[in-house]
Amino acid sequence: MIQEFKKVWKPYTIGMLWLLGLLWPLLGIHPDGTLTFQKTITVWSYLLAGSFVCLMIYVLKGTDSLKFIADPISRVAGNIKTTSIALPTWIWLGAGLIVALIYPQFAGRYGTDVAISVLLYICLGLGLNVVVGLAGMLDLGYIAFYGVGAYTYAILNTTYGLGFWVCLPLSGFFACIAGCIVGYPTLRMRGDYLAIVTLGFGEIIRIILNNWMELTNGPNGILGVKPIGIFLPVFENGFTFEHFWMKKLQLFYYFALGLAIVAALCVHRLNFSRVGRAWESIREDETAAELMGVNTFIYKLLAYAMGAIFAGLAGAFFAARMRFVSPESFTFLESAMVLCMVVLGGMGSIPGIILGVAALIALPEIFREFESYRMLIFGATMVIMMLFRPAGLIPAKRVGTRSEEKEG
Amino acid sequence: MEYFIQQLINGITLGGMYALIALGYTMVYGVIQLINFAHGEFFAAGGYVGAIALGYFAGIGYMETHPIICLTASFAMAMAYCAYLAVGVEKIAYKPLRKESRLAALLSALGMSIFLSNGLMLTQGVYDAVYPSELFQGRFDFGMVTISYLQIMIVSLTAFLLVGLNLLVFKTKVGMAMRATAQDKTMSALVAIGSNRIISLTFAIGAGLACAAGIMYGLYYGSVRYDMGFVPGIKAFAAAVLGGIGNITGAMLGGLIIGMVEIFGAGYLSSEYKDVFAFIILIAVLYFKPNGIMGENIDDTRV
Lengths: 408, 303
Prior knowledge:
Distance between the termini of chain A: 31 Å
Radius of gyration of chain B: 19 Å
Shape of chain A: globular
Structural class of chain A: mainly alpha
Helix content of chain A: over 70%
Helix content of chain B: over 70%
Strand order of the largest sheet of chain B: 1-4
Number of strands of chain B: 4
Number of helices of chain B: 12
Order of helices and strands of chain A: HHHHHHHHHEEEHHHHEHHHH
Oligomer: heterodimer
Distance between the termini of chain B: 41 Å
Radius of gyration of chain A: 24 Å
Order of helices and strands of chain B: HHHHHEEEHHHHEHHH
Number of helices of chain A: 17
Number of domains of chain A: 2
Largest sheet of chain B: 2 strands, antiparallel
Structural class of chain B: mainly alpha
Number of strands of chain A: 4
Strand order of the largest sheet of chain A: 1-4
Strand content of chain B: under 5%
């Protein structure tokens, strides 16, 4: 253990001293001409203590000194794994579904509200997963399609009085059109350039939403969007259908659950289809995929449009739930947040994304008092995940076996 | 006509700042083929540290007596700070990922950018940090056209930094080592050029230039914000791409063009959509001429 510690203490000390030098000018120099050290040292010592604990765990894990803790955990994990393999998948899925169905009966209003957010972001994350995880294109303007979907419903509803069920496919359709418009010129590019261009397009769409006063009411947003209307059978006076506005939170929850399940099913089916294999080949090596006869441009455009459709559907639901849309909901930080969820959970893996969304939406709700540190932690999470576990918490399973795995 | 000349002067001022930021992108890209998303944050951090240093000097009362010395010292301190920040960021977030896929490095850079801008927000508050406005109050009037002392200062300092950088890169041994590393890391390692040191140096220089741009931005517009690095960062990236990424002269030219386009677009077309013009140029350049106006041929894995 001492040996292991000797290896890391030097970079660690340098790093912490670097941090001290970084913090002091920001915290210790005051405009009234005084220099203070107290606040810097306080903040720094918190960081020092926190990082030291992490470092110790890391070192001890490397030297097997944590066997007495790690062993039972890994045994339990192994047991769970064997049970999960022993039981067929549909039992797990069914159990998850039942829990999800009865959840709002036990959770309060607040819990249901958080759960709706989680489901909405699952839908968004799965859509982004098609673009980033399956086709391997980094899309940083993804939230713009969410915005297009939300605004489509809000505008059609407030100006033309169209109902939610008419607008839902239209939202998906318009988001898809927007995706094709953005995708057509950009998809000739690869990698980094694609990322920055999608970022640019996302900003353009946001700026348009912000400035087109006649259509979108600019930064004030659109108020008074109607919630979802449903027809329920009524058995008084015979059998008639009556129109209800979905105002109860539980109904929203069930709708969001349905949307998320549909999204998960679609992505799962796409992943294991011919299209999914084509996407995967583009992700792994675009030139080779093209040589093997995959029409890369069409498939990339398809991935882009697919992602946009999911975002558009989620956007329409978002507008119906909030009953208000404004450009502030569709900033770059939202894009980055969805991306962070996908990265944290594991690109290309559906259970991973569900876990990632749950972690990044539900945990900040629990630690309410650290609200302002949320984005800071998101950023740090992305860096740390890339450094230590680039495949995510639950890495995606590859389809079939590969030659290099067979040999090994 | 006066209006045109006035806009031209404003465009040169803004374009110079974009050029300074764009250089950081282009140099880093030239050396390690990474879009440094956190570069805009160096710009914002520079603006803040400049504000802090100027505020400190004003607080202890040196500002009235020796304004030039205080300003020079603030620039030097802030640039050193940003270089220090950038070197650390490179060591933490980019160096371990140099062998990994490009997506991983890009995501790490993105995470670092979010982290840094929120770190600035937490330490400095969400409100604008105000720059002392009594500096460079005067102006020249030529009929309808006015040039403020501040604009002269910004343009001349930008020119000084750009010339200095050109001399450094094209006339010194260090610059030669940088160019060699950008061309071929293995070969340059064989002739005893430590690529790690060169990469650190590149980050430091790029961040220092972005920081100078950040202070100029603060002086010019009067205040800085924690999230101000984002939009100028993308515009400067557009400038770097326009000039041909990896090409230093191209980045300078691209920055000037983007600044001009933004000012003229805001002046003659629509000021609400001024941010859009830079993005449209970026997309158009990448679509029609991905190598940029001065770029060399880049192999297709980069584009």
